[in-house]
């Protein structure tokens, strides 16, 4: 007797496949969103706020630009939204976008969908089912956040609205990643375009919050729309409804575009043939530079724009805090001490620079792991090129590119402050930016360690010192954790350069830890079997 | 015996509980075209990864021109490699990939490379992302043959090529042989191996079961004989070397012959033979005989 497995419904199979690819990361993202919100609600210490000072705070364009419009700070929930809302929305958005391109375009790029699509399913169905499954994750993250906040005794309506806002932002970026994956024929190009849209959305929120004349810009940004709901204050439903509609339209668009194109192709057609560009092909380091230039240009543009804006508002910000010492103290509780001088302000903002630059180096080394895994490195490794030389070239190029990014951020901040005559010297700006080098080096060391022993985890492990360390510090500051808990984050060991001198001993310790990681990783990389 | 182009001594590789390669000892002389046969999963690619230093042996040694395979800075100056599954950076054109490989590789004859591009009819101005499997394979083949490296390690290099390109491949192997280059060819295309290889090694379940020249392999194996007779066929039962005897109808006898045919021919000569067909087995039949029952 011949037994034939009854064909399951293809949609079900596709959903199962998508779930398998995102479930672990989905759990992490949901836990971080809910956990961080609950911790901040619990750790909130209410202090009597002077209504006049509160009004001044809400009016100040610099405060609004950087942290969003401060509303309902007199409640634990309101404070939590102000403190964590943007961070969590960016985290969820970035993850959602990257996951969307990974499980659709990434799988298609790797050729795994060819087999899948030879069965009883179409490209459009596959894309819709994958994005549909992924869109559930932000809903879970939002629901868990709202539930955690309510359980921590925050107001129910505000918590629910905040959760819905987070979910809507997440779904929006799932859809954006999905559309981008249809437009471009490679995962990296799709990621680049979607990331540009995300940074654009963030900048639109900042400018819209900071300048009343451009307040309408917030209606064009998912982060702006989320802020416009004003949870725990006026609790408006319209902005989040607009955001949810936009997200659903984009989702539908992604499915529609998928039906329109060929498997393996993008809506935007790339040039079919072109003359060879042979610059930077002469050696392994040169080739590493060649592959880094394009991402470096994109990251420089994003980071440059992001740090120009705080420069432009530096004066307004510092003057406000000098006039309102109550808020200087409050900012200190929120992890932003010494904002009253332009140097202190710059130092505080430059510390944030470690996050994107740390992610940058992690992503660059993850690209090496991906090249190895996809067997693109095989032909290079069959040439007289030792693993050590290849790794050294990649690490050196990623490190130098990170220094370029850091310098760009310093120059952008300086240019902004110089425009408003805020009195920050160019040397001080550069020194402040370079102060994050130890954390970036830690990321690089962690990424090399992962590449040597667990190549699939390079991006996550490499980004951990920067992203994990930053979140750790935010939580520790918000709940007023004991100093040894704070000290676990590398951010706790950054001096406020240029306001103070660099903490050389701490920098040396971090460099030493990074070097140990890099050495251990190199040993593993030389010893293990390459998947080539 | 001259210099070994590649040599393995008791080479073993274990992946967890799977013994992918068991105690392989192999010696390929410089200038030889060596065919490396075996079904999927027999350990061919594992052997090649060990020879290239991409994977580390669990036990034993692999040497390229008497240098340990782990010393890739030295060994890779003397070899060029074509992987079974060629992956290229999708945004780089074929010309750019060839340029990169020539500049980091062991030295390239650019005039011969241009000739190979023509012969393999590869459009090098297209981005690699638009290439088919066969075209990606052509890029790696052109890069490897153009190096004139003393050892070419080719892992199923023609699996994606059409018959015309397959012919070009055989010619390129011929040119390499004339230049005194050693070719280590892992392949499933038995006709190709038969056409170009001097010697063949057969791998089964991680173990080397046979190393011989193609002619020897055939001699080692039986020859099929079919004879028809005008009168009564002779009784060949018990004749030395005769095996698998059976009668087709009244006047036809089929059998296989192992070793010397003298006894069988003598027996046949006594009868009135009308026709006789003697056929050597193809490499494919030998290969299938090896794996027919106990395949992996």
TrEMBL record, chain A:
Coiled-coil regions listed in the entry: none
Q: Does the keyword Transmembrane apply?
A: yes
Q: Which UniProt keywords apply?
A: Membrane, Transmembrane, Transmembrane helix
Any stretches that span the bilayer, and where are they? 25-44, 80-98, 133-151, 163-184, 190-208, 238-260, 296-314, 345-370, 391-417, 429-451, 458-475, 504-525
Q: Which residues form the signal peptide?
A: none
Is Transmembrane helix among the key words of this record?
yes
Q: What is the designated name of this protein?
A: Polyketide antibiotic transporter
Q: Which organism is it from?
A: Micromonospora inaquosa
The upper taxonomy is:
Bacteria, Bacillati, Actinomycetota, Actinomycetes, Micromonosporales
TrEMBL record, chain B:
SMART domains recorded: AAA
Q: Which GO terms describe its molecular function?
A: ATP binding; ATP hydrolysis activity
Key words, A-Z: ATP-binding, Nucleotide-binding, Transport
Q: Where is the ABC transporter domain?
A: 6-230
The keyword Transport is assigned to this record:
yes
Query: Which superkingdom, per the lineage?
Result: Bacteria
Cite the InterPro entries for this sequence: AAA+_ATPase, ABC_transporter-like_ATP-bd, ABC_Transporter_VariousFunc, P-loop_NTPase
Answer whether the UniProt record assigns the keyword Nucleotide-binding to this protein.
yes
Q: Which PANTHER family match?
A: ABC TRANSPORTER ATP-BINDING PROTEIN ALBC-RELATED
Protein name in the entry: ABC transporter ATP-binding protein
Q: Which organism is it from?
A: Micromonospora inaquosa
